[in-house]
Amino acid sequence: MNVVRFLLQNHTQVLELTLEHLWLVGWSTAFAMLIGIPLGIAIALRPRLNKPVLASANIIQTIPSLALFGFLLPVPWLGARSDRLAILALTLYALLPIIRNTYAGIRGVDPAVVEAGRGMGLTEMQLLYQVELPLAVSVILSGVRIAVVISVGLATIAAAIGAGGLGEFIFRGLAMVDDRVILAGAIPAAMLALLADFGVGWLERRLRPR
Questions:
Q1: For residues 49 and 42, is the Cβ–Cβ distance under 8 A?
Q2: How far is the C-alpha of 21 from the C-alpha of 93, rounded, in Å?
Q3: Which among 4, 146, 25 has a CA at the least distance from the CA of 17?
Q4: pLDDT band at residue 210 using 50, 70 and 90 as cut-offs
Q5: pLDDT tens digits, residue range 22-64?
Q6: pLDDT computed for residue 152 by the predictor
Q7: Residue 90 and which of 18, 21, 28, 42 are 20 to 30 A apart at CA?
């Protein structure tokens, strides 16, 4: 009840930090999709690119989040704005599931369907946009779903570099040794992750080929 009372008493700040959190996650997910989906398509069509692209994305995933923020801080244009730095770091972390699922979705299309498209006279680009991507869209969205949930969680750490978001409450609560303040950041962040998972999961099921 103490947490609920704290949330109600500070609802304006909770809403402000939640919007900041959504802003960081939204932009980073959008950038990750703009980069990750074309890369996933590229490695599906050009298998020789598979290992270097997936290896690079895997290496980024192994770097601890605070360490990655530290690596990016000296970059002149990024280091001047903590929100830019946080968005770049979250984008890098969101790439792997999107690239991997895009690749898996396209490679998982039934070869007989692709051959039927070729038999109808479709070019490779027409096959990609009219056959392979529509059939792979639910698998791609599954990767986006994972990326969004990862970003919601990692965005709380962005508060450590002054990028805002619900992590502000968590770090403030840790400094004050106050469970109410910690939970005021942790509970809305967990709810955002669950809502994102449910929302993208619903869209994924709606677009799954029948």
A1: yes
A2: 16
A3: 25
A4: low
A5: 999 999 999 999 999 999 999 988 888 888 998 988 988 888 8
A6: 92
A7: 42
Residue with tokens 């903590």: 82
Please name the residues in contact with 135: beta carbons below 8 A apart, sequence gap of 6 or more: 105, 109, 110, 113, 209
Neighbours of 53 (CB within 10 A): 20
Residue 75 amino acid letter: V
